[in-house]
Amino acid sequence: MKPLVSFLLISLLAVFTFAYDQKVTVVGNFLCGNVISNGTEMILKEHDWIDFDDVLSTAATYENGSFEITGYENEFFKISPYLEVIHSCGVTQGSVAMCSITTLWIPEGISYYKMGTINLLDQQASRPKGCSIQRAFFLKAKAVSTVWNIFGL
Fold first, then answer.
1. Does the structural domain 17-147 have CATH classification 2.40.50.100?
2. Which of 51, 98, 99, 109 is deepest in the core (most CB within 10 A)?
């Protein structure tokens, strides 16, 4: 048992020793059909294979539908970043406000990615849920991102 514990501790030490800071910035614009998608919330995440995906940052589009979001992560391997976009574009279900999440992957190894103009009507989205649920998810991610940034984690 002791050799296994020692091996695991040494492995963890090696990962933390050789991990390096990585930064990713994504810029672009969102449309909903022909309409500017302002105030659209997004979460920049990094895909992890073993544990939960990391929240790198949160942001919302400006009045003109443009956005810039930057996140940092300390990882041993190259990060696999993606953007989760919370929107109500193309979502109609009676009088209840509904939202979907669209996931947009960012190419690995690129630290500054110009996404261009994305029409959310043309993107695959999750099954619609109440916007209050999606909004709570965004606020939780924003809080986690803020805590990580405060402590430099």
1. no
2. 99
